[in-house]
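User: For my dataset I need records formatted as: sequence, then structure tokens, nothing else. Please produce one.
Assistant:
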Amino acid sequence: MALLHKASNENYLSGVQNKLMLILGKKNVVSKDVTDLLDHLCTLFFDLKRKGDVSVNAQDAVSIMIDVLEIVKPEESLKVSKICQIWEQVLQLPNVILSNQTSEKLIVWTLQSVRDENSSVLADILSFLAVAVNYKEIKQAKDLKILLGPSGFVINKLNEDRQVNNLTVLILKVLCNFTYCSGEKDWSTISKDLVEACIIQFIKIQEQQLNSDPSNFNILRVLILCFYGLENIFVRFTTSTAPHLETIFGLARYYMLFGIAGQPLKYAPIRPSSLPFVELPLKCDQTKNPKVRKKRPPSKVQSKNRNQDSHSEEIGIEPHLQTKNKTWAKNSISISSSDSELSDSDVQSYQRLKETQGKVRSSALKMLSAAFKFCDQRSVMGYWSAFLPDSSQGQVYRHSLVTPILKDCSVKVRCSALVALSSLLQAIQPTLAMASYQETRTGSFIPLSHTLAETIIAVQRSLVLSVSAEQSASALIQILKCLAVAATVFPYEKLPMELVSKTIQQCTPFLDNKDPDVKVACLSVLRILLCARSANPQIVQMFKEEKTGKCWLLEHCLTLIDGQSGFPLTLESLLVIGEVTRSNIRVAQPYFQHIVRSICHKLLTDQDSGIQIRCGKALALVGASILQEMEKEDSDQFISRDEAVQLWIYIIRHGLANILQAASVPPLKAEACAALATVGSQIFECLPRELRILFVTLALGCATDGDASVRAASIRTLGFAVTFNTLNDDASFLLDSSEKILPLLLDGNLLVALNASWALGNLADTLDKDQNSLLEEMPRDFLINLIKAAVHAAQGPMKV
């Protein structure tokens, strides 16, 4: 109770501090007093850390602990152990800030303690150090190299231990936490030598455990920590990994299948190459002439069965995954209470072992994903062929990132493999763009383009197969996300069209899935396939119904918008509608009236500002698509001018006007202004007079808005408006526009100033074209003020 009372008091540390001062003032310190004080501090800070009390004055706690270091000698092992435990709790309190001086004192005290070589307290010291190195001030301490340097105490201790034990795990925790650099801080001050030492130790430990016992939990924890540390280094210190990529990638390919039964593991560093697939399959010794046996011709039944299984052999998957109704093959054991030969504790140990082995594979794949994402693109180019499958004829099946996607029983591992595959495909997009499939190829030479096409086909088929076989919702979402990446980077126009048709066929049923996130991911795949390949008539035809010729994807999205769908599903549906309208107006033309009415209704009735903003973006895409059609010849237009005018009348009256006149959130107003800018001169001159007046009023009114994004969008709209045929001879409108444009040339926001300078250029062009009729109606000083403002803005700091 006394402890709780003390913790609730604002000055609860003052009593401890006074007691500490008394101890420091004594010439002969009583050991029992120090021990009691340390016990009290340990209990106090443990309780405070557990509660997570943000009112704790963490800096007072740090000051007290710095003073405590002076009353304990390094050879007093019990007290040193207690201090380490207390520091571990203090450093985990909220809002702790360490000064450089405090950090140096901590490192010096740690060095004095470890030099005593007392193994009984080494675990506590390492546990404290693992927490301390999370702080940037500790990471950049000068004396830290004596601990973590290539010949430092921690590294030497790691190399001395022949077997993996708890100390090995603690040392690797220290190295991992040292490499973890979170936030937006500048980490360039961290010693590159220490980072290099960490890389070498991580690689060395992994190489030592290549043929180790996969059921040893300490070894599994060590491997997880090594991959976690390398992942941190790829994120923050990518350049330091360049000399070690061959070894790191080789280890990752080995351990991404670690612990899977029936998967032969062979480690070899991966050599970079400028050409893909330079690794030839192992062949038997050709110096001897083996006897050639005459083989009987295969029967028709055998050849038929072989043809059915050829696809699964190409990409190295198990035959039972070919069917849609079969589930993943798992390394299962009987766990029934009556028939099981294993006890419940044995079953739990087995499951725990499998989970830990899965964490090893997952951590290896996460490290690969970080490498593909943060490494220089030119570095990744030399290694990508080792991680993608090859379905070329005559090639021996090899393990790739597709293998864990299809064969691993752990959902987390499959998700990690899919993320790594997505990162790799994005990194090598320029190379994949060269792919070109040759159905009828003559000669023995295989061009690079065809080899790339074979690889893409193998990847796409594997992903499509995994969609039908996957039972986990989280893994299914990752597969669909990976398919979305593939749809972005694969050149389908130079590949067999069956890849796209099978992808659409497998993904479409998931539009009615119970999980809304699965629906969103499925919509994303279909959107990219349709919009990114809108110029390909074969792909566009796949999204049309055979009888009516209408786009079933647009109809589905319009149904979702008109109904009560969730937030992410509504956003994705609006994105599909906007992108389809922008990329292929021929597909969207039959739905234009429905699209406009549904979006405007959602814009005004939905209470979520995020959905309203997406509605504004969709209207801007619809307006831009209509404007692009109006610039074509009448015979080439898919939408007539009369239809376009009626659509814009509805958009302004039942959508944009209400948003711009109401007290809407600034981002929504900015999107509404951006949509208003897509009207175009041909549509504007056909609008009713009251709507033209309303258009001008809204554009001029938003130019003085307090939000910079609204001002920028409004000035951009005025920049278009001064070029309209109906307005470019209106002297009063041009004067009003100039009054809004000129002050914004010196706006503190760069985007506003740039848009204002662009609008001023359009205004000057309009005055130049109609100078004879306009200058007579303008004030005498108008042109002078215009020139002065332009010159002054050009000489300003932003030189707009």
